[in-house]
TrEMBL record:
Residues 2-45 form the Large ribosomal subunit protein uL11 C-terminal domain. One of its GO terms (cellular component) is ribosome. InterPro entries: Ribosomal_uL11_C, Ribosomal_uL11_C_sf, Ribosomal_uL11_CS. GO terms for molecular function: structural constituent of ribosome. It comes from Liparis tanakae (Tanaka's snailfish). The keyword Transmembrane does not apply. SUPFAM superfamilies: Ribosomal protein L11, C-terminal domain (SSF46906). Gene3D superfamilies: Ribosomal protein L11, C-terminal domain. PROSITE patterns: RIBOSOMAL_L11 (PS00359). This is 39S ribosomal protein L11, mitochondrial. The keyword Ribonucleoprotein applies.
Length: 85
């Protein structure tokens, strides 16, 4: 999850990249490019993020990361047990 403000700040930095400067890309189009990339990566863009919403997001993210580690470990163990047979 990322705020519109953060997207704008990222765009200001990205607009300085040679690939954008050479094509004389407007800041608006840089923002659109970043929004498109974020969406394709599954990143949600929100207007504003309160401290409480951000805390909740971080907690949910931490839980998901832990679950992903457990699933990866289980898959690795299963793959190893399959090779031993």
């Amino acid at each position: 999850m990322v705020s519109v403000r953060a997207v704008y700040e990222i765009a200001q930095v990205k607009a300085l990249d040679e690939c954008f400067k050479m094509r004389n890309v407007s800041l608006e189009n840089v923002v659109k490019s970043i929004v498109g990339s974020a969406r394709s990566l599954g990143i949600k863009i929100v207007n504003d993020l309160s401290p409480e919403e951000y805390r909740l997001f971080l907690e949910q993210r931490e839980e998901k990361l832990k679950a992903d580690v457990i699933l990866a470990a289980a898959a690795a163990a299963e793959a190893l047990s399959g090779k031993k047979k």
